[in-house]
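Give me the fold.
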Amino acid sequence: MKKSNFFWVGFADLMTSLFFIMLILFVVTISFLQFKMKENVNILERSKAVIEKNKQLIKENVTLISSLENKEEQLNIEIQRLNKLLKIEEQFKPLEDSPYFVYLEKCKKFVARNLVGKEIFESKQTNIKSEFKDITIKAGEILEDFLKNMQNSNPEQSYLLVIEGNMANKLDKSINVNNSWGYKQSYERALAVYNLWQEKSINFRKYNVEVMICGSGFNGLCRDEAEENNKRFSIQIIPKTENQSKKSKK
């Protein structure tokens, strides 16, 4: 055989070997790329899941922040309201310490000191006895001055003034506490006190005050243990508070 033939046979074997090597490398490369592609797809899917989770966390955090901001706003409003009430409570001290009134701490009421235990009305009537009119008028003047000062200190604040008539039961307490006559009589006596103040130009309504006249008869809280001392009228001043839930919606 000629030498040239050996060369071509050797060359063909070499090329065949190189082809198979290249084929193997191609298959390995394709397999590796597919493996990497699958791995990258898995990484991408996990990344998407993490992104979605983070989006949800961000959404929850935004909601939480908004809720906290609303809570903070409500808390600030409540703090302002409480501070205002504390300020008002401090301004009640002059009336509590006044020599003209007795303050009943338990039920937040005032009674005229010089009228405690006195029958200021005619027996079974609603007319104020003449000897007690000046004391009653003085109590009204002190109360009017106090409300005037309260308005000057808190011009935006309004109050409810309750004038309540009370009745003394018999010593054996034989009169039913829900006796309708007692309610009517005590109301009319409270009204008589208010009318006397009106006659003397004592006008509480000038000072952002709503006046309510009522009678508790032989019933009611903070009754004196000495039954005779319940022949009286009492005063309650209630600061009006704004509805905070409506205010926060504005």
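DSSP finds five helices and five strands in the chain.
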